[in-house]
Design goal:
The complex is a heterodimer of chains A (162) and B (288). With 162 residues, chain A is mainly alpha-helical. Chain A is 65% helix and 0% strand. Classes of the chains: A mainly alpha (162), B alpha+beta (288).
Chain lengths: 162, 288
């Protein structure tokens, strides 16, 4: 029999932070991808977000909500620090055979041009299906602000698209 | 004012999210942040970014090569070069004579440059002695490709070698993702390649609707599972009757691995809507 070494990397303990990480990592990477448009950066950003949760893990009522806010914040930092020069990484997906329709690609480009908080509202609203109240909590602003960010985002997109 | 635009944004996000890739076996600990700046963004140097770019381009090239090749040859003799997207997948030259150690070790015997091909088995074969998991084949390799490839890469995983369970589902923008986690609980390494057949049944065992469609944007790599290794399958569907009606809730999801004959039933109240698809089998637990 060949010396089959089990791969410890594939097996996680079923409790604590590792379990939390395992359960939420894919969703967090997707969220970071949508918030930045960069699949390349999304995993790093997701790891960053988990790093922000780690010191508080076990003490949080709703670690998933905390993680969501952390993700929003690390992605905001990404936008600030990397800005324009990283535009080439912000395209959706490096591969031409990945299926994004032309209409969606155009729309995503338009969304990318919005201020970050407007982008975040759209992602939280349309991707995570969060209520206005939950979006307000996640972003740390008032529900009225969410409403106006949302309205401004849609208005800007309508103007932007032909 | 609800509109068309709402739906278009949902669709765009869903399409983008469907392209998200995740390194297999991702673990917490690839810590991008430095101790001094908790959670702060990692400042990539231009060099790092460029290197990352190269890696992606290289990976794509491999993926394209694999796809091109697989379309040229008939099915069973063809094993596309594995697409390496994570640490657990090893792009191993087939002339590797070392004993396999559990991770994905696959190759493309049919593309070997002539000569005597020494190929690595991915598990114990009946014909090999306990100490030597390496099979040497000679000139007849090409003629015997079809049977040789099967033997060479280790046997296909059968349901008896594996346990399956439903992973954590997640989703957004009206789509749901459901990983099915597969663990090799057998005593030998075996391989899985391609799209499982996944269908839903009701309590009486009658099939509900159509089986999940293979999602062809995911290239089917060969995944070798050593004992204890984990692989996974990802099911996707819209989460509601958006583009069409949804199925009633199932009593079980039946999974048939490619090349296997035994379906595995997982008790699950799964509801399939439009866009019920399955991705190719991958290593790691996330289905991505």
């Amino acid at each position: 029999m060949a010396p089959n070494l089990p791969r410890s990397a594939a097996v996680r303990p079923a409790d604590g932070f590792d379990a939390f990480f395992g359960a939420h990592y894919p969703a967090t990477v997707r969220l970071a991808h949508l918030l930045t448009g960069s699949n390349l950066s999304a995993e790093d950003l997701a790891q960053d977000a988990f790093a922000r949760v780690l010191p508080h893990h076990g003490k949080l009522d709703n670690p998933a909500a905390y993680l969501r806010t952390a993700t929003i914040n690390v992605c905001r930092s990404w936008h600030r620090s990397r800005g324009r020069e990283q535009d080439r990484f912000r395209r959706h997906g490096p591969s031409p055979d990945i299926a994004i329709s032309a209409a969606s690609a155009e729309l995503l480009d338009s969304i990318r041009r919005l201020p970050y908080r407007q982008q975040a509202v759209l992602v939280l609203r349309y991707w995570l299906d969060l209520s206005e109240a939950d979006i307000a909590i996640t972003l740390g602003c008032r529900p009225g602000t969410v409403k106006s960010l949302h309205a401004r985002a849609l208005e800007a997109i309508r103007k932007d698209l032909p | 004012m609800t509109t068309h635009l709402d739906d278009e944004i949902r669709t765009a996000f869903a399409e983008l999210a469907a392209t998200t890739t995740i390194a297999r076996d991702a673990e917490f600990g690839d810590m991008p942040s430095r101790p001094g700046e908790p959670g702060g963004p990692r400042r990539w140097t231009v060099l790092t970014a460029a290197a990352a770019c190269l890696v992606v381009v290289g990976g794509l090239a491999v993926a394209f090569a694999a796809r091109g090749r697989s379309s040229e040859r008939p099915a069973p003799a063809t094993f596309p070069t594995p697409v390496s997207t994570g640490p657990s997948t090893t792009l191993a030259p087939v002339t590797n004579t070392a004993a396999p150690v559990g991770t994905t070790v696959v190759g493309s015997p049919t593309t070997l440059p002539g000569a005597s091909s020494t190929v690595t088995t991915a598990g114990a074969l009946p014909s090999t002695s306990a100490a030597a998991p390496v099979v040497a084949e000679t000139e007849s390799t090409v003629a015997a490709t079809s049977s040789a490839t099967t033997a060479v890469l280790g046997e296909r995983c059968a349901a008896a070698d594996l346990t399956m369970s439903l992973g954590e589902s997640d989703g957004g923008a009206g789509r749901r993702y459901q990983p099915i986690v597969v663990t090799n609980v057998g005593s030998r390494t075996c391989t899985v390649q391609g799209f499982p057949e996944v269908r839903l049944v009701d309590a009486s065992g009658a099939q509900i609707g159509e089986p999940a469609q293979p999602e062809s944007t995911t290239p089917p790599a060969i995944v070798a599972l050593a004992p204890g290794d984990i692989g996974s399958i990802l099911l996707q569907t819209l989460s509601g009757p958006i583009d069409g009606p949804c199925s009633p809730a199932s009593a079980a999801v039946l999974v048939l691995l490619p090349g296997d004959t035994d379906e595995v039933a997982l008790a699950s109240e799964y509801i399939a809507c439009t866009g019920f698809t399955v991705r190719a089998f991958v290593s790691g637990p996330t289905g991505l």
